[in-house]
Amino acid sequence: MRSEPNHMRRFVALWLLANAIMLPIVIFVLAPGMPPGNGTEQAAGQVVDNTVLLALSTPVALGVLLFLGYTIWAFRERNLDGPVLDGPAVTGNSSVQMWWLITTTALVLFLAGFGSVRLLEDGSGGGQGPSPLVVPSGKALQVQVIGQQWQFTYRYPAYGLETNSLVLPPDTLVEFHVTSLDVIHSFWAYQLGVKADANPGVDNIAYVETRGPLSFEVRCAELCGVWHGYMYNPGKVASSKAAFASWIQSQQQKYSAASKVLPPYSHTYFPGPNGRSG
Amino acid sequence: MDAVSSGYQQEPHQWRLRSLSAGAKMWCGSTSGFMGAFLFAYFYLLALDPNHSWKIGKNVNPSGGLGVAIMAVFVLSGLLLWLGSRRPADEITTGVVAIVLAVVGIALQFVDYGVLGFGPYRGGYASVFYGWTAVFTLGALGGIYWMETSVAALWRARKNGFADTDEELLRVGLQSCALWWSYYVALGVLMYVVLYLV
Amino acid sequence: MTATANRVPAQSPARQRGLLGFNMLTGIILGVVGWWVFYLLGGLIQGYTNHGFSQTGQNDVQIMLGYLGGVIGFLGGLGFLNYPIQRMMGYPPNIPDHEVEEPGLGKYFRLTTDHKVVSQQYFVGIAFFFFVGGLNAMLIRTELLSPTTHVFGAQQYLTLVGVHGSMMMGMMTSGVLGPFANWLVPLMIGSRRMAFPRMESLTFWLLMAAGVVLITTVFFGGFQTGWTGYEPLANQGTAGYDAYLGFFGLVSISMTLLGLNLAVTIATMRAPGMTWSRLPIFCWSVVATAALMVLAAPMLTATLLMGISDRTLYTAFFDPGLGGSAYLWQNLFWVFGHPEVYVLAIPGFGIVLEILPVFARKPLWGYKIAVSGMLGVAIFSFFVWQHHLFVSGMNADLRPFYMLSTEIISLPTGFTFLAFMATLWRGRIRLTVPMLFCLGWAFNFLFGGISGVFNSDTPSDVTTHGSFFVMAHFHYTIMGGLLFSVMAAMYYWGPKMFGYKLNERLGKIHFWVMFLAFNSTFGPLFAVGFLGMPRRVVTYATNLTGLNDWVSVSAYVLGLSLLLFLFNMVYSWMYKRIPAEDNPWHSRSIEFQLPTPVPAQDFDEIPVFSGDPYPYGEALAPAGAEPATAGAY
Ligand code: HEM
Ligand SMILES: [Cu+2]
Ligand SMILES: [Cu+2]
Description:
The structure holds 3 protein chains of 3 kinds. By secondary structure, chain A is α+β, with helices and mostly antiparallel strands. Chain A has 2 domains: 7-75 and 99-121; 141-259, Cupredoxins -  blue copper proteins (Immunoglobulin-like). Chain A has helices at residues 7-30, 41-75, 94-122, 241-254, 256-260, and strands at residues 140-148, 151-156, 161-163, 166-168, 173-180, 185-189, 194-198, 204-209, 214-220, 232-237. Chain B has a single domain, classed as Four Helix Bundle (Hemerythrin (Met), subunit A) (Up-down Bundle). In chain B, 76% of the residues lie in helices and 2% in strands. Chain B has helices spanning 13-48, 64-85, 91-115, 123-159, 167-197; one strand spanning 2-5. The longest helix of chain B has 37 residues, at 123-159. The radius of gyration of chain B is 21 Å and the shape is elongated. By secondary structure, chain C is mainly alpha-helical. Chain C folds into 2 domains: 17-100, no CATH class; 117-610, Cytochrome c oxidase-like, subunit I domain (Cytochrome C Oxidase, Chain A, Up-down Bundle), CATH 1.20.210.10. Chains in contact: A-B, A-C, B-C. At the A-B interface, loops of A face loops of B. Strand 1 (2-5) of chain B pairs antiparallel with strand 1 of chain C.
C-alpha cells in the first residue's frame, strides 16, 4: 500500500473542480431559463426559488455522482475471474456520520427556512384558501375564476362583468378568487406563476402582482373529467391600464344582456342545501 | 452471517404463542387506522361544515338511549371476554355470553337503524353516522367469528380432555382475541360517545 | 432456547389434488358463479337504489355486490373457506412446523403454505399485471406522440392513465414484500415459515383478484379519475369507477395482511442468536415497510368504503352540496398515500444495502444509521401528506410546516445514501449485473430525491404541481428506484430462487439499455413539466411535440429492455439451462449457504446465529472459500 494515492483528497479536488465549472453554468446559463419566467412578481419569485434550489442541488448531485464514479474507477475489481478478495472491514465512522448529519441538517433547515420566507413574502402565486395568510400590500383588483366542466369563466365583481377571457391590467395587484361549480379543477396560469385549485364550495384566493404586458396560458391542472385536456384558454396582461379599461368596456357591452340574468356575485356557488329532501 | 444448527428440529413453542399475541396487537394498530379515518371524517366535516349542511333538516339525531344501550352491551361483552380469558375455569361460559352479547349489540344497532328519523344523505353528520356504525357492525361480525373459533376450539379440546391439543396455544389464542375485542369495543365506545352523545 | 415444541400439531388433511379440487380453476369457476349470483341478487334491490343521488343512474349496489360475490367465490374455490369453517366447528389451529417436498406443478396453482412457493406465485402474478400496466404505458406514450392526431378517445386515454397508475401502484406496493420478503425473511431469520402461512397465501390471491377486478373496468366504460380517484369527479364515474374502488379495496386488505404477517414473523420468530442488531438490513427495510402497511393501508380501506357507501348507501362524505367535502377525500387519500409512496421506496433501500456489501466485499458501513434511516423515513412519512395539496387552498397556513416536514424526510433518506457510498469506498467493487442495478438505483434515486426538493418547496411547487415534472419525479423514485432495485434483486437472488443461472451478458445488455432508456424517457419529462405541460392530458401545446416524441420513442426502448429481461429469464430457463451454484456471489448471508434449490423445509434444524450479518473483510479469504462456520448446511 505504499504507492496508494490519497483518494479522498483527489475526490475533493475533483468535486471542487466540477463545481467550479458547473456552478457558473447553472447560475448564468440555466437559471435565466428557469420556469415560469419573469412575467410577474410572483413568477419572478419562483424563478429565484428554482435558481437557488438548482444551485444548491448542483454540488450535492455532483458530490454523489463523482463519488460513485470515482469509487467505481478507483476501487473496481478488474479481475473478476481471480480470487475473491475483500476490502477493509470498516463498519462505520462516527465523525463522518456526525458531519454528514450536520451538513444535511443545515442544508434542509436552510431550504425550509428559505422556502418559507419566500412563500411569506408575496404568496408565490399559490392558492391560499379563503383566508389568505400572505396579502401583498396595495389595492387589489378582484377577479373570480369559476371552473366548471370544462371551461373557466371569469368574473370581475367591480365591473359587474362575467366573461370567458381573462385580461388583467399591468402593474396591478390581482386577487383571484378561485372556485368551482362541479368537480375539482385547478387554475394554472403558467406565465403568471399562479396555480390554485378550484374546489366546489371553496373560495381559494391567490395573489399576483402583474408587471408589464404579457401573454399567458391558462390550463386546468387537476384531472376533471373527459375533456380535462382541452380546458385551456389564453389570457393577457394588457399593455396599459387604459387598454384594460377599454377592454372592460367592450366586454360589458358584449355581455350586457347576459349580465342582467347572472346569479348574484358570491364567493362560492352551491345548489340549495336541501338539494335533495327526504 | 455465521450460523450453525441448533439441533432442534421443531421450532420453539414460544413462537406460536408470541405470534398470536403480537399479531393481535398489530391488528389493533390496523383497526385504529381504519377507525381513525372515520373519526377524522367526523371532525373534519364538522369543522368545515360545507354548505352549512352538517345536519340537513330537523331531527338528525339518533336516540341517545339506544346508543347507551348498544354501548353497554358491547362493553359488557368485551369485559367478560377479557376477564374470562384469564380464568380457565370460566373461559367457555364467559366466551359464549360475550358472543351472545355481541350479537345483541348488533341487533340493537339494526333496531336503531329502523327507528331513525333520517337517511344517510341528510348532511355530513348523517353520512358519518351511517358509514361509521355500519363498518363498526361489520367489524363486530368479524369479532364474533374470532371469538367463536377461539371458544369452540377450547370447548372441543376440553371435551377430549386436551388430548392431542396444544392447550397453551388455545389459551393464548383466546387471550389474543380478547385483547383485540376489548380494544375494538373501546374504539366503539369512542364512536358511540361521538356519534350519539356529543 | 428452552422449550422446543414437543407437541407436533396435526398435519392438515391432504387436500384434494384433482383438477376440480381446490385450485385456481375451481376458484375461477366459483368466482364467476359468485359474481352472477350476487349480481342478480343486487338486481333485486334495484328499485331502492335508482332514486338515489348517483349521478349516472346506474345500480352500483348490484355491481359492488357482484365484485364481492366474485371474490368470495374465487377464494372459496381456492379453498380459503375450508379452514375457517373447520375452526368454527372447534378444530384446533394447525400450522405446519415446516413444509415437506411436494412434486409437480400443482402447488403453484393452489393455496399453499410454503413461503417459497407463495413468493414464486407472487413473482409470476405481479409480473403479469406489471406487464399489463406497462402495456398501458406504451399506449399512453403512443397517444402522446402527437398533440393533435389521436389514437384513443379522451375517455379511453384517461382510462389508460388510470389503469396504468392504479395497476402499478397497487401491484408494486407488494412488489418487493410479496415476491422477495416472503421468500427471504423466513430464511434470513431462520424461521422456516411465516407466522401466518395461510394469510400469506391469502394476500397473494387477494392481489390477483384485485388485478382482475381492475381490468374489468374496461367492460364498464373505464374510469376517468386517474389513480388518485379524487371526489367529487369520482361520483360522476360510471360503473368503471366501481372497479377502481374494488381494486384498491382488495389491494389495501392484501397489503395490510402482508405487512402484518411479515412484521409479526420478524418480531417473534427470529431463530436463536438472531438479535435485532444482527438482523439483515433487508429485514429491517421489511419491518419499516410492514409497519407502514399495517397502519396506513387500513385508512385506505376505510376511505374506499366511504367512497363505496357514497355510491350505494347514499351517504354524502364527498358531496360538498350535502355536507361532505372534496377535501376529505384528498386528506384521507394522502394520509394513506404518502406512507404508500415510502412503501414503494424503503424496500429498495433494503435491497441495495443488502446487496452492496457482497459486491463491495466490505461490511455494510453504518448499519445503525442505515436502520435508523429507514425507520425514520417510515415515521416521518405520516406527517407530510399535505405537500400534495399545497395549492388546494386547504390549511394554507400550514404550508411552511409541511415544507419543513417534507424536507426533513430527506435526512433519513440521506442516511441510506451515506451507507451506500461509504460501503463502496475502498471496497473491491465487483461490477456484476446486480451491482450495476444497485448503482443505477443510486443514480436514479438521486435525481428522484433532488426533484422532490423542488416539489416540496412551496413556491416552486406552484409551478410543478400537477405537471409532468411531478410525473417525472415519481417515476424516478419508483421506476428508477424501486424497479431498479427489484432488478438487482432478481439477478442476485433469482438464481437461488429459481435454481438456474441468468445469462450474464444478456443481463449487462439489459442493464445498459434499461438505464439509458429510463433516463432518456423520464429525464426530458422534467423539462416538459417545467415548460408547462399538465399531467393526464390527451393533448398538449404543439411546441412540446419534439420533446414528447423523444420521450415516447425512449419509452418504447424502455419497454423493450423489460422484454429483454423476460427473454433472459425464459432463455436461461428453457434453452440454456445452467443450474445455479449454491453460492455464485460468494455471499455470506445465510440463504446462500443453503443448497440450490432450497429444500422445502429450508433448514433441517432451526439455526443458531452468531456474529455480524456482514462479515466481509476481516480475513482475506482465499478464492471461493465458504465461510468457515457455514458447514452445518
Ligand atoms: C414502463 C415504463 C413506464 C412508462 C413509459 C410510464 C409512463 C407513464 C405515463 C406516460 C404516464 C401518464 C402521464 C400523464 O398523462 O399524466 C404515467 C403515469 C403514471 N405512472 Fe407510469 N410509466 C412507466 C412505469 C411506471 C411504474 C413502474 C410505475 C410505478 C410502480 C408507474 C406509476 C405511474 C403512476 C402512479 C402514474 C400516474 C397515473 C395518474 O396520473 O393517475 N409507472 N406513466
Ligand atoms: Cu378542469
Ligand atoms: Cu407525499
